[in-house]
Write a structure and sequence with these properties.
single chain; about 270 residues; alpha/beta; Rossmann fold; 8 strands
């Protein structure tokens, strides 16, 4: 693990195989951390890629910025990290909130993107009801902590049948959620409630784009992934069977195959 200071915070990150030909940045969702991407890191490094996995501010081993953290702050943090590492451009991918960070990164730093990977995410702006929900949840996490929330949502983060079928995966996902600092989670929830609609900017994407979704994702269903695929010119869309909101963890071999085939086909 390495650390990097930016904008009043210290980000933790892993930079694996820095001699790899093409850098790939993978952005975790809420309320997880960089270890979510361990199966992809191993597969990508074995295929000759450099893999950079940060903990977003407020998550994992990164420091907390209390109050509110906008997606634009996360995106600018990543741009600063790439500059710090001397990386001009990279494949940028994310799951769930991480996918929204990737879309915001494209909106603000598109010259740094070689390809986009958007997994189980939504391009829609938050609704008024969604804003109330996220702000109320932020208040609840600050009062109660993460345990109750983690137990409530585990069968939505994973397909419900995978909670029992994949106990080690379920325990890892629960562990990440429980270990997240409530102040970091709350700040991200409040910032995410203010996200814009990414439809207009997705229509201008000029790099190869892969959209991935678990077949049984209840948070961002297949229809939302296909809607993103319709917005992005020449996007590839892949549905991962027997997976919910985190197909990279639930079906890592299938996810890795889809990702590597896309990278080989589109980037050479």
């Amino acid at each position: 693990m390495s650390r990097f200071a930016v904008g009043g915070a210290t980000l933790a990150f892993d930079d694996v195989s820095p001699g790899g030909a093409t850098p790939v940045v993978l952005i975790h969702g809420h309320p997880f951390n960089r270890t979510l991407w361990a199966p992809q890191t191993d597969a990508l490094v074995a295929a000759g890629y450099r893999v950079i996995t940060p903990d977003l501010r407020g998550y994992g081993d990164s420091t907390v910025t209390p109050g509110e953290v906008l997606l634009s702050r996360f995106a600018d943090d990543l741009a600063a990290l790439l500059a710090h590492l001397g990386v001009g451009s990279a494949v940028v991918g994310g799951v769930s909130m991480g996918g929204q960070v990737a879309m915001e990164f494209h909106r603000r730093h598109r010259h740094r993107i070689r390809a986009l990977v958007l997994s189980d995410t939504s391009a829609e702006a938050e609704t008024d009801e969604g804003k109330r929900f996220r702000n109320n949840l932020a208040d609840r996490l600050l009062t109660e902590g993460m345990d109750g929330y983690a137990n409530e949502v585990i069968d939505k983060m994973l397909a419900a049948y995978n909670v029992s079928a994949l106990p080690e995966v379920a325990e890892h996902v629960l562990g990440m959620m429980r270990a997240t600092d409530p102040w970091g989670a709350a700040a991200a929830l409040r910032g995410r409630a203010q996200r814009p609609h990414y439809g207009e900017t997705l229509g201008t994407v000029a790099v190869p784009t892969l959209v991935v979704v678990g077949a049984d994702d209840v948070y961002t269903p297949v229809a939302e992934a296909k809607a993103i695929g319709d917005l992005v010119p020449d996007a590839a869309v892949s549905v991962i069977d027997h997976a919910g909101h985190l197909p990279n963890a639930e079906q890592p071999e299938r996810f890795n195959t889809v990702l590597l085939e896309f990278l080989h086909a589109r980037l050479g």
